[in-house]
Write a structure and sequence with these properties.
The protein has 7 helices and 9 strands; from the N terminus they run E-E-E-H-E-H-E-E-H-H-E-E-H-E-H-H. With 224 residues, it is an alpha/beta fold.
Length: 224
């Protein structure tokens, strides 16, 4: 497992070096993993890395890139949109010569349509937005501030909004509320993996059996 860098397109037509976690031995089979979004990305990162370890043992390279504006990214989050994120994942796929793609949860809305692949427990943008709104409303209530989803959406579409510590621009929110998973990928639902979804836990976690199961589904599909 090594850190890697890749040239990500920026809004001004230039590129910025973005970080990726790589199991890369230059093998033929190469899986790009588009991570879950926001808090779910944090909760699922250890699990994702464990899946990558198992794929490496099965002879499959895998790459987990940062989304622009997230984690170690040098780019600001508030100028990003789902469109720029999709473009970034396409650039990462090209740079790392990906042959397949996996989108995890909200990452399923950002996978390059040109690659064969899978969506693990995909969700919609509207569902993610509701989850972010609920967290904001509960946090505001604890300090005596009353907010509603309708008022937050109205404000967000006008001037952007901070949700769960993520500063999102108005254009991002406008696109997110109508975003759905990219067509064409095979869906891996949680029942196929077994157990409860790790994104539902309060803290980041992992599950050896779930990592084994997801890696097996992917390896069988990639090697078929």
């Amino acid at each position: 497992m090594i850190p890697g860098a890749w040239p990500c397109p920026t809004s001004d037509g230039a590129t910025a070096d973005e970080y990726a976690l790589c199991f890369d031995s230059g093998r033929i089979d190469r899986l790009l993993i588009v991570p879950a979004l926001f808090d779910e990305a944090n909760r699922l990162r250890r699990f994702t890395v464990e899946v990558m370890r198992r794929l490496d043992a099965a002879g499959i390279d895998s790459i987990l890139p940062d989304l622009p504006g997230c984690n170690e990214s040098p780019q600001p989050l508030d100028i990003q949109t789902p469109t720029t994120w999709r473009r970034a994942m396409g650039a990462a796929a090209e740079h790392f010569r990906a042959t397949h793609v996996l989108g995890i949860r909200g990452g399923a809305m950002l996978t390059p349509a040109s690659l064969p692949g899978w969506h693990y427990a995909p969700t919609k943008g509207a569902a993610i937005l509701r989850q972010l709104f609920r967290a904001r409303i509960l946090a505001s209530r604890e300090i005596g501030i009353s907010e509603s989803q309708d008022s937050l959406l109205e404000t967000g579409l006008r001037e952007g909004l901070e949700l769960s510590g993520f500063g999102l621009g108005a254009q991002f929110l406008e696109e997110l509320q109508r975003l759905e998973a990219i067509d064409g990928a095979s869906v891996i639902d949680q029942e196929m993996i077994g157990g409860g979804g790790l994104w539902l836990r309060a803290e980041p976690g992992e599950d050896r059996n779930q990592a084994d199961a997801l890696a097996a589904v992917l390896a069988i599909g990639i090697k078929a």
